[in-house]
Every structure is written in structure tokens, then in C-alpha cells.
Design brief:
This protein is an alpha+beta fold and 183 residues long. It contains 3 helices and 13 strands.
Length: 183
């Protein structure tokens, strides 16, 4: 059995779920999310909990069992608390400014880079070197943060770039350190 897939999801007070075949719709205080699950996974809705069953024991379907439960659990958490990712800009002159709903990033290019939020995502700046990405969909928040990170990923020699808060960048010694150790 899937250790994650067999666990029921208990719905909080202000959250309602609607199951229609293999589609699940979750409504909560922060909004509404829906997901279409694979046909091999059956969702059962009782008074205040969701349970998941799989139709066969094939390894691929066993993997979908845990995945389906995790996706719906993330939807329940998203409509109750929401999700947040934080990014930091590290480098001389690197800064982020709010421009309407989006951001304008100055990260070492000859021009500022404009970032527009995905639907349902909020972008904010804290100071001028921190970015906060918030939303109710875990996948959308992660995708938006990844697209901002990809604009200027941290480089290993000086550590400059856009990094996730708490991300550890492994630093490499430069050419001078290589030449000094060979002599």
C-alpha cells in the first residue's frame, strides 16, 4: 500500500469539497482550486474527509495513488493558508522594484527585466533585494519562483544572482587559486 495514498485528508471547518467522477473541486476562505485526477484513482467523500483508492496494484498506478492524495492535500492547504516562496537578490546594484502587479528587476543586464505574475499569483518586494511570491496553488507559486530564479541564477564564482531564501550556493575557487596551488 502507498503510505501517503492511504492517509485520509480531513477537511477543515471552512473548506468544502465536491467530487465529480475523477475531478475534485476544493473551496475555501482564500479561493477555489480544482484538479482532474487519473481515472485509476477513486476519490471518496464522506462527511468531512477525503479518502483515495486505486483500482489495481500496478507500480505506475501505485505511484499515482500517493501523487493524487498529495495534490489534493496541497489544494486543501492552499485554500486555507496559501503558499509562499521568498527569493533574494545578491550582487552589487541588483534590485527589484514593484511596477503595478509585476516587478522590474535590475540584475546586471543592460536593461531592466519586467516580470508579470501568473494568474492567481501575487508578487511583492521587501526592501529592494527580497521578492515574495504568494498564491493558493503550490504548483503556480513554485513555477513563478522558478521563472524569476532562472532570469539570473546564482553563479558559483562570486555568488551573484537571484537565489531562493536559504539556498546554499557552492562556491568554486577562481583561476588564481588554481594557479597558486599548482606552483
Amino acid at each position: 500500500m502507498s503510505r501517503i495514498g492511504i492517509q485520509p485528508i480531513i477537511l477543515p471547518e471552512k473548506v468544502t469539497a465536491l467530487v465529480d467522477g475523477n475531478s475534485v473541486k476544493i473551496n475555501g476562505p482564500l479561493g477555489e482550486l480544482s484538479e482532474t485526477l487519473p481515472g485509476e484513482i477513486k476519490v471518496n467523500l464522506t462527511a468531512s474527509q477525503l479518502t483515495f483508492e486505486r483500482k489495481s496494484n500496478i507500480p505506475a498506478i501505485r505511484a499515482l495513488h500517493g501523487l493524487s492524495r498529495a495534490l489534493v492535500a496541497n489544494m486543501v492547504e492552499g485554500v486555507t493558508k496559501g503558499f509562499e516562496k521568498r527569493l533574494e537578490l545578491v550582487g552589487t546594484g541588483y534590485r527589484a522594484t514593484q511596477s503595478g502587479a509585476g516587478l522590474s528587476l535590475t540584475v546586471g543586464f543592460s536593461h531592466p527585466v519586467a516580470v508579470e505574475p501568473l494568474p492567481g499569483i501575487t508578487l511583492k518586494t521587501e526592501g529592494n533585494t527580497a521578492i515574495v511570491v504568494t498564491g493558493i496553488s503550490k504548483a503556480a507559486v513554485g513555477q513563478q519562483a522558478a521563472s524569476i530564479h532562472a532570469i539570473r541564477p546564482p553563479e558559483p564564482y562570486n555568488g551573484k544572482g537571484i537565489r531562493y531564501q536559504g539556498e546554499v550556493v557552492r562556491r568554486k575557487p577562481g583561476k588564481a587559486a588554481k594557479v597558486a596551488s599548482a606552483a
